[in-house]
Every structure is written in C-alpha cells, then in structure tokens.
Amino acid sequence: MALKLRPLSYALGAEVCDIDIAKPLSESLFGEIHNAFLDNGILLLRDQHVTREQHIEFSRRFGELDRHDALPRDRHPEYPELLMVTNEPKANGKPGDGKYTGHLWHSDMSFTLQPSLGSLLRSIHVPPVGGDTMFANMTKAYDDLSDGMKKLIADLHGIHLGKRKIVDLSPERAAEQARINPPIAQPAVRVHPETGKKALYIGEKVECFAGLTREESRPLIEYLCRHATKPKYTYRHQWRDNDIIIWDNRCTMHAALGDYDDDQPRHLERTTVLGTPSGYIVEEPPLH
Ligand code: SIN
Description:
By secondary structure, the chain is an alpha+beta fold. It has a single domain (4-276), classed as Clavaminate synthase-like (Double-stranded beta-helix). Helices cover 21% and strands 25% of the residues. The strands form four sheets. A seven-stranded mixed beta sheet has the order 1-2-3-13-5-15-4, with helices on one face. A four-stranded antiparallel beta sheet has the order 11-7-8-16. The mean pLDDT is 94. Residues 85, 101-102, 119, 121, 133, 254, 256, 268, 270 line the site of succinic acid. Succinic acid binds next to strand 5, strand 14 and strand 15.
C-alpha cells in the first residue's frame, strides 16, 4: 500500500492520511511511515483512538523508549515511557508540573547525554482555541546560513540546561534539578545519522557556548534561534483530540505556545525515542 501524504507547510511536515495505528501495521507499511518521517521531519496522524499500551507499542517501532529518568516528576506513575504534558491542577490547586513543558524552543532531551531520536505526542484533551505547537526545520535553517556563519559555528558546543518554568520552584526542587540534570554541552551542528544531512542543534535551552563567555555567546545564540524560527522554516500545529504528531528531534525543534485559557484542560502524553549518545557534562559553566 502506498502511503497517502499531505504536506503540512512549506517548511516541513506531512499528514499521513487513512492510517489507523490501532490496527496491525506490516513491516513494509511501517517502512513507508519511517521513510516519510525521515523525508518530512514531522508526521501528523489524525483520529487515532488508541490506548496507552498501543501508543507505547507503536512508538517502540521507531526504537528503544526513554523511561524519562531525567524528568521523574513528569512521567506517568505506571507507564514510565509516557511523559505527561498536562495542565491538570495538583492537589494544592496549583497548575501541574507539565503545564510549562516545552514552552521554550528545544529539541527533546538535548540536556542529557542521550538526546532523543524522535517523539510521539498524543493529544487527549485540547482547548477549543490555542495551545498550538510550533515546529522548525533545522536542516533548512542550517543550509541557508552563510558559509562564514557555518564556519564560525562548526566546532562550537552549546551548553544545554534542563531548565523550564516550574510553578512551585522551592530551593529543594532547584537542587534536585541541578543534580539530575547537570549542564550538558552538545555540538551546535549535528549530522543526522540516517540522512547524513547537517542540522542546527540549538534552542532556548542553550545558555552559552563552551569556551566562550555568556556575554560573548548570547548574541549568537539569540541570532541562531531567531533565524531558525522565521516563518519560512516553521509549521504551527493546531491540535484536535486524538492527534499524534511524530517529530525527528535530530533535525527539528519545537515549542508549545501556551496561548490558551488556563481553565480549559490541555492533556497530552508523549513517548520519547532514545537517540545516539552525544555531548559531555560541563563541570563549570561560565557565569558571565
Ligand atoms: C513537548 O515539548 O514535548 C510538549 C509540546 C507541547 O505541549 O505542545
């Protein structure tokens, strides 16, 4: 069966039409989905009425799954392969920890020594308006840089922090984050292991470059983020319930916009496919 694809934007992404992942998928059909994933950077599957087990089982076809040890408070208590992206309030009435997940432009798990190959995010309840997710094509963004800029960043390593806004950030919680997620340096340009294409590997979790001061690094980081998130490199996804988006973390980045009414539930669950080991721990990141 030839896969029916519909482009999602000029920059990246395709919708896979007429597919139901709750049904058995042959090796050859999965092979077509995998090729479409490599060609398009992100895939959208609408109307997927699946259980948690089916979500996990389908995700495993892309590779071994992360059990989210780097984000222990956000994983499902019985399914560690599922990361909860939810604004469901906590017992104390404050917004849940997952409310701010993904609000900065990032590639999943870049702040660990095994950044993700890809992620599969399933929408269960989404607000009637807003709560969209933006995606950027980091291969196109890299290709369009000048030769001079490509040369300048070729050997740079960005220091990625596992930071995000937390509603109740106590000193204990901040210490826990620092212990579980020390700063990790990752190459600013990575070669995709399957397509062989170069892609920018940068984002708003990059604090500075290794070997440069913070003051020296910031203008370049901000320029590269601004460049990569220009409309011509992006796709904005308006969620419906029961969507699954699969994205390639090696050549895209994404950001949850958070532009929705807080009284409306937004509940999504994500599996994260492990990628190849990359990067190193930075003992003393520059402070200035
Ligand atoms: C994520 O970064 O995995 C979450 C994205 C979203 O909530 O839209």
